[in-house]
Amino acid sequence: MAPIPFSPQFVLKSNYEGSHEEREYIMRNRIIAVAAVAVLAAGCTTDPYTGQQRVSNTAAGVGIGAGLGALAGLAVGGSPRAQRNAVLIGAGVGALAGGVVGNYMDQQEATLREELRDTGVSVTRNGDEIILNMPSGITFDTDRAELRADVFPVLNSVARVLDRFDQTLVDVEGHTDSTGSRDYNQDLSERRALSVARYLGAQGVDERRFSVRGYADTEPVASNASPEGRAQNRRVEIYLVPIT
Fold first, then answer.
1. Which residues contact 234 (CB under 8 A, 6 or more apart)?
2. pLDDT by residue (tens digit) across 10-43?
3. Are 121 and 154 contacting, i.e. CB atoms less than 8 angstroms apart?
4. What fold, for 100-242?
5. What is the CA radius of gyration of the chain?
6. Residues spanned by CATH 3.30.1330.60 within the chain?
7. What does the alpha-carbon distance between residue 111 and residue 165 come to, in Å, rounded to a whole number?
8. Is-contact 122 132, C-beta < 8 A?
9. What is the pLDDT, as a whole number, of residue 24?
10. Ramachandran sector of residue 110 (left: φ over 0; alpha: ψ -120 to 50; beta: rest)
């Protein structure tokens, strides 16, 4: 099944005027629509004699089978994270269970700490969740959403770890300080999170594992009254959780 492409329409905006259930319903149906197209595309080949598109037997047995499994996973409902779990498991990605989860996340945490030592990116463990905090000062220029070239090696290291530990969901979240309007900050936080996710996807990380969100200045980790506090609030966080 083809990866779900990154597009602003898949960013779940935190300031969307609607209930939590409405936001999840919209996200779910957008993913189902793209997944359905991908299922059909996975089974199509071009007849070399007629030039017409047709479904190959191999694709019908493998690609479409995995795609339908993914769609069946979406049908179970639940949170966006639960639906990504279901999509990946339905597509053939193995799930972790029991005591294996803790050991898996321990190894992933240790590898990330080794790879990201002295990069300015912090690694925090919270139960079975790992959080990478990427300050905007090392990632983006002021008011820009294009990644700085000097952060590429850092993201390459993250991508290598995500490729090795491929039973992990990846939530990329953008945050800003309170300078500027809420609408401007919302857009900037989304574009920055999307830039990070797209780069990781371009390094080969399965894009179906991602969720991308912008939070503007709604989740500060420090006071916006000082330059130091505002600098801490301008960040992209990557949350890593096991597929279970």
1. 135, 136, 137, 175, 176, 177
2. 455 554 444 444 444 444 555 555 555 555 555 5
3. yes
4. 60s Ribosomal Protein L30; Chain: A; (3.30.1330)
5. 19
6. 100-242
7. 10
8. yes
9. 47
10. alpha
What pLDDT is stored for residue 86 in this prediction?
A: 76
Residue with more model confidence, 232 or 77: 232
Distance CA 193, CA 48 (A): 42
Q: How confident is the model at residue 87 (pLDDT cuts 50, 70, 90)?
A: confident
Strand positions, DSSP E, the chain? 44-46, 53-55, 122-126, 129-135, 168-175, 210-214, 235-242
Phi, psi dihedrals of residue 143, rounded to the nearest 5°:
60, 20
Q: How far apart are CA 40 and CA 42, in angstroms?
A: 5
Contact 43, 56 (CB under 8 A): yes
Instruction: Tell me whether residue 220 is exposed, middle or buried, using C-beta atoms within 10 angstroms of its C-beta: 0 to 12, 13 to 18, 19 or more.
Output: middle
Q: Which of 129, 165, 108, 87 is nearest to 239 (CA)?
A: 129
How buried is residue 46: exposed, middle or buried, by Cβ count under 10 Å (0-12/13-18/19+)? exposed
The pLDDT assigned to 172 comes to 96
> Quick check: 38 and 68 in contact, CB under 8 A?
no
Both tokens assigned to 90: 């339905």
Q: In the numeric block, which tokens belong to residue 135?
A: 């300050």
Residue (of 169, 188, 167, 170) closest to 235 by Cα position: 188
